[in-house]
Amino acid sequence: MQHYEARATIAKALGHPSRLLILEALAEKDMCVCELTELVPADQSTVSKHLAVLKHAGIVSVRKEGVKTYYRMKIQCLEGFWKCIESVLKQNLKDHRVALGA
Question: What distance in Å separates the CA atoms of residue 90 and residue 6, rounded to the nearest whole number?
């Protein structure tokens, strides 16, 4: 059961649109909270909480440079995961169109 709880922690970390946006940005480059706050429609404390969830799940890592804290992707396997999600979305759209007779 612990294995499934560990999986659920990761799935929950991926279960918020702002965290998905953060991960997409971090896939391009390491970023500080201040940079991520400009991307995410939320204040800095909320962005920091999202980053803490991602860090706790083992998806991002942290490094300090002076007073700034930089975040980076700790894993490189999300690209395939995104492709899988996109294929599900496309199939769902196709299924809905068929159901509607479109």
Answer: 29
What is the three-state SS of 57-70? CCCEEEEEECCEEE
- Which tokens hold the place of 28? 């391009």
Give the position of tokens 């002076």: 66
DSSP secondary structure code for residue 41 in this structure = S
Tell me whether residue 95 is in a domain: no
Structure confidence by residue, pLDDT tens digits, 3-19: 999 999 999 999 999 99
Paired tokens of 38: 């400009």
In tens, the pLDDT along 70-95 reads 999 998 888 888 888 889 899 999 99
* CATH number of the structural domain spanning residue 10: 1.10.10.10
